[in-house]
């Protein structure tokens, strides 16, 4: 078979977004954006494998199972690169030997001025946000490319485009996620594996709790968002299903910004 991306299926548009019969591996799926997107993938018909650090939490698994699909938990702390290296194979075993979608949402943040930023925190942020994402994507590529079918969705950030303040490691990792997304797409799009990213703007989640707690900073940031509000995890359900589905068959190497118009301003 020629090394080209297969055409978008000529089916009714509603069917383009169906994920029935597919399997998704999700990191960072127990809270915030990751939780909303894991549930959205399930509602579109995909079975879900949740990579969790805390395997005693079953609320997301149970909510996903309530949609009628299969959902299993595989233990993995993204700080532990040894566990990350075996995660994809462990997920394959649990889910029956096929994974069609990799959703890389797990990440961490540390705030400190660059002159005082601890080296160990730099290494930890880079390992979690970038190296673990690469290792998982590499394992996914080895599985998907020979099968000529797959979707990889990475969570980037506004700091993929702008530098931020007091977050040198986070900004560096997310800038690299944007470039890695393009690099993998350049290699794998011809094999019918689409690699894309979603860049959230200012979203009311746990990772931004400190910003929202600062009244002046929260007000100033909100005033810069044309939509007039911070985003919520629910704002990512549609973009995620789109990028995971046949509807995005000819979309690859893109960083889709979901920010209420912030970058446009």
From TrEMBL:
Keywords: NADP, Oxidoreductase. Residues 22-191 form the Ketoreductase domain. Signal peptide: none annotated. GO terms for molecular function: oxidoreductase activity, acting on the CH-OH group of donors, NAD or NADP as acceptor. SUPFAM superfamilies: NAD(P)-binding Rossmann-fold domains. InterPro entries: KR_dom (IPR057326), NAD(P)-bd_dom_sf (IPR036291), Sc_DH/Rdtase_CS (IPR020904), SDR_fam (IPR002347). Belongs to the short-chain dehydrogenases/reductases (SDR) family. This is NAD(P)-binding protein. It comes from Calocera viscosa (strain TUFC12733).
